[in-house]
Amino acid sequence: MKRMNGSVEPIPQVRAGHRSRAALILGAVSGSMLLVALGGAAVAGRDPVAIVAPPWSGPGPGLPLGADALGRDVLARVLAGGRDLTLTAIAAALTASALGVAGGLWAGWSRGRLGRAAASAADLLLALPLLLLALLAVVTLPGPAAVVAGTVLGGTPLTLRVVADATATARRAGYVEAALSRGERGGAVLLREVLPAHAGLVGADLGQRLVLAVQLAAALNVLGFGPAPPAPDWAAMLRENLQGLGLNAAATIAPAAALAVLAGSVAALSHSLWDGRS
Amino acid sequence: MRRDGLTVRGLTVADRAGTSIVDRLSLRIAPGEVLALTGPSGAGKTTVLRAVLGALPAGLTRVSGQIEWHGAPVRAPRRWRRRTVGFLGQDPASALHPLLDARAAVREALPRAARGAGAEERALAEVGLDPAEIGRRRPHQLSGGQAQRVALARALAANPELLVLDEPTSALDPAALLLALEQVRRRRGDSRSVTLIVSHDLAVVRELADHVVRLGPDGRDDGVPQAPILSPGGKPAPGGRAVPGGRAVPGGRVVLDAHGLTIAQPPGGAPLLSDVDLTISAGESVAVLGASGSGKSTLLRVLAGLHPAERGRATVAGQALPWPVTERSPAALRALALVGQNPLDVLNPARTVGAALARPLRTLRGLPRRAARAHVRHLLAIVGLPEELAHRYPATLSGGQRQRVALARALAGDPAVLLADEITAALDTRTAAQVLDLIDTLRHETGLAVLAVTHDPAVAARAGRVLRIEGGRLRPHPCSHHRRPSLDVL
Questions:
Q1: How many domains in chain B?
Q2: Could you tell me if the ipTM is greater than 0.90?
Q3: Is the CATH number of domain A83-231 1.10.3720.10?
């Protein structure tokens, strides 16, 4: 009544193929978005701070997205305005994720009083309003450092909890006990067995931290803590051009869309990675 | 409403690639009847169950066919399951919610009107648990066997019209199985209850079932490749089948010697096992039986260095065996190897079979990378697996194959004693027999000693010596020869 494909159960392979295709597409979208954000300035073709047209001129020949509040090329500014924000967000996400993974592995493994204290401290940190912490950071630190600090304060506790729970479960898994009983040290088991087994989880979590960092960087830049005025920046463009929405909507919508696609594609990629592991 | 019981018409289930897992299956179970689904592992028994319950996992779809309950198609499977179905899964202990204590877990399964007034306590008492002692415990405070019983109490609590048991013979220990089968027998012929049992144990189902449906073509292999079992020397073992006997080699070299071993769970608490004296000679096979929660697995974990011992000392292969694994000499680490019971997590999902086998070859034997890779092929051959498997990830292996890889990994350090913790519990009878044959062959060819913790009398029957944990002591079991669990139970 049932056919078997030799000794292999067919389902997991098929599912893996399905997942990896989704992950590939989302990876391509977020990859190209990152590429635009980081390398856009090189292909902008025009100086993003030069005044080239009357303020808020609509889209026309030579100005596909029109001009902004001071008459600068919106397309050039969008292409050039994502680099610092994205670099800051990536640095912040990597820092927050690395700290969270290291802390989570340790807290989940040690099961001692210290590990529990770390987990409780993380919970306490989560209870504080993140924007308040970020504002506190931004008045004491320069802009990019504040984004890193805010992401660490708001994101590391989440990573730590997730990784600590996964580690505590993995401690009783057969492959970990086998490694321990043949004399492997705790650190080696964590790095060689536990971490690779949860690579998907960590990758997905890194994506979530990146989304948080992009949002935080955008929020702080909108509030005026970003790069100084003539420099192009997606978030600052939102603030500068909002009054001109009726005259040249593209000047506001283009940077908003850039921010949304960046955060959205990274979030979706992270989601598909997580699906692939659960 | 007609009371026709459960009818399955032309059920076909396919995976994403379009391969049929179940092909045009029709069943009918009238009220008061018991139907058993049998077949080798991988034949789609559990898939049929899930399709009947309307809960197929992602990736599988019901292509055609209909499930009818009392003559009408099941339209809202979730509500239907809640009202009519009692279900006991293959791994009942892990199906319990970690935050619900035993009493709450049973309460959840009861219809709202029946809750309270001691109904939960009665359900727990009926499966032989003391509600006063167990009722407030959460799954992590229960032993494996106790958790199985809580899951059983949950399935039976509401006296469901349709009771579904998935592999009760391997999911439950013999005592709990006896309770479950007693319930099934009581339901039989009451002109109300419908019972569906999935089991690979024909002996159990033949006695109990009104109908037996066998899935999968007859004489079909269950997916384990038929490579001849090779002895480490490379020549096929005699017939590759069970080697009779299994007595301790008279005057054999002592490989494991433990004295006055006392174990507490949790460490430092009340002793679970006291003053254990255990001596095992080369080539000997020793089985440890005991009720669930008696400390069988903990004994192995202590020997493997994963759980602290309170008192006692031991030597292995002439080497002192300190209890913490970090203080053991390389020779002592090599001499003991542990194989766990759960094929799902016995291998790291992120490592290929080859990498999983190469690691202990490098750490325990100090082989360089290239030599380790070559030796992986040899290890796979010992456990009767093709060498192509070295490049596979565990997710693409069957349960039996994974357990063989775990065995190969344990053999990598050339151990003197194999610590086997219920290694066949999750395998079907035939695959289990193959794994046990393999271990017997190794014992005779290489003098490997085996200390096996089990609740399966079939495993115990092969052992040269059977010990039993009773009242916190390890004692020789009076009778070493057992029949199949099913026959004992029935």
A1: 2
A2: no
A3: yes
